[in-house]
Design brief:
By secondary structure, this protein is α/β, with parallel strands linked by helices. The strands form nine sheets. A six-stranded mixed beta sheet has the order 5-2-1-9-21-20, covered by helices on one side. A four-stranded parallel beta sheet has the order 13-12-11-17. A three-stranded antiparallel beta sheet has the order 6-7-8. β7 and β8 form a beta hairpin. It is elongated and about 70 Å long.
């Protein structure tokens, strides 16, 4: 097998896994490299952060996914550079992995628009560690408020600010508000959790900008019904341990969550090619890096357009489509067949939830909102989960929460104490 064409895939997200799946039966050997040992179902990460589901329900060991594919080798490591002339990726510890074809599917992280000093106070949400950090801070805020005698500090502890009103920000704000106003009131004695403030801040003119204006307006109405304060048209100008400055107004808020932007991995810098403002590598029509025909860049790492120049969104279906396409290109190259036509993204719609009983769906001509949209959203996400056990576990967690209003994963772990800051 060592003499087979060697495909190195960096990143075990949706794009990378779909590529490996698409190469099943091809005359290749595959090395899949990721800095974590698990694949993460990111669309439901906010539900871990807001105590609806447990971490094990949306993450799976990468090795276990390919145990029946002997041609696939999984390595735990972090790529720090690409030696394109030598056709090798370089790991942080200096290890070199040679390739014949390289696929970079390294994803993205949070972007603070030049204010990285805000990150300790306003964590983003991209990893399981991020989710458990946010969950810890939210739960500890209530616990500390129960002990606090100073009314101003108690109010700051019970003020939660979500910065950025895309789907993740809206989903986070809605669930935090539901937890404060409906789940927790009967469990605390010295505070009324219904007095908690949840503030959703968006610098742009409206929330959920990728959706139609009528669905965006519906989402605002539903959020306000849950008790969320929606502030649009004003950017955040400072984040500290004490709170946040929205425009020129300081708001005491001890729990901040960042959902305002993303920054791509350094793949473009590794390859010395052009990138867009978010750091995404500008790739060719076949998703290859310009000047590097044996290197593909896909998913959140790549800048790809569709439908007259609109950027392909950084969502799971887009990454999966790109992974499947690149697998077809590699197959065609190895067999000498005609390569597929240029990549064309097929937008399958946008979905977002507002709390645990409402959602919006935008399929272009077809739009839906309310409880039915929530059920469709749930069915779609359960379908894409890996494994029967995960589907059952998530479905049961949702069903229990829907009926009882109780969240099933409200545990403060990782040695947190009330003395711990943030």
């Amino acid at each position: 097998m060592q003499d087979r064409h060697h495909v190195v895939v960096v990143g075990g997200g949706f794009g990378g896994l779909q590529l490996v799946k698409g190469l099943a039966g091809a005359p290749v050997r595959i090395t899949l490299i990721d800095r974590r040992n698990h694949h993460l179902f990111q669309p439901l990460l906010y539900q871990v952060a807001t105590t609806l589901i447990a971490t094990s329900e949306i993450a799976w060991p990468i090795r276990s996914l390919w145990r029946d594919r002997p041609e696939v080798t999984t390595l735990l490591g972090e790529v720090s550079d690409v030696d394109e002339a030598g056709k090798a990726v370089v790991l942080r510890d200096g290890t070199r992995i040679a390739y014949d074809t390289l696929v970079l599917a390294t994803g993205a992280t949070h972007a603070y628009f030049g204010h990285d000093e805000w990150e300790p106070f306003a964590p983003g949400l991209k990893t399981l560690e991020d989710a458990t950090t946010i969950r810890r801070r939210v739960l500890l805020a209530f616990e500390r408020a129960e002990l606090e005698e100073d009314p101003d500090l108690r109010a700051a502890l019970l003020t939660f600010t979500v910065i950025g009103a895309g789907p993740t920000g809206v989903e986070l704000a809605g669930i935090i508000a539901e937890m404060a106003h409906r789940t927790l009131p009967d469990e605390f004695r010295r505070i009324d959790t219904r007095q908690a403030r949840v503030i959703l801040v968006e610098a742009g003119p409206r929330i959920l900008a990728a959706f139609s204006e009528d669905l965006s307006a519906y989402a605002v109405k539903e959020l306000e019904r849950l008790g969320v304060e929606v502030r649009t048209g004003t950017p955040v100008t400072s984040c500290t341990e004490e709170g946040v400055v929205i425009g020129d107004q300081f708001v005491g808020s001890r729990t901040l969550v960042w959902a305002a932007g993303v920054q791509a991995s350094p793949a473009a810098r590794w390859l010395d090619i052009a990138a867009d403002r978010a750091g995404r590598a500008i790739v060719g029509a076949d998703l290859t890096a310009p000047g590097h025909p044996d290197v593909f860049v896909i998913g959140d790492t790549a800048a790809v357009t569709y439908d007259g120049g609109k950027p392909v969104p950084g969502i799971a279906p887009a990454a999966k489509q790109q992974g499947a396409y690149v697998a077809d290109v590699i197959r065609a190259r190895l067999s000498g067949a005609k390569p597929p036509a240029d990549f064309r993204y097929r937008h399958q719609g946008s979905l977002a939830t507002i709390g645990r009983r409402a959602a919006i769906i935008d399929f272009g001509r077809f739009k839906l909102k309310g409880a039915l949209a929530w059920w469709i959203w749930g069915i779609a996400h359960i379908y894409f989960l890996i494994g029967t056990r995960s589907r059952f576990a998530v479905a049961w967690s949702w069903f229990w929460t829907y009926l009882s209003g109780q969240h099933s994963a409200r545990l403060i772990t990782q040695k947190e104490t009330l003395k711990e800051k943030g």
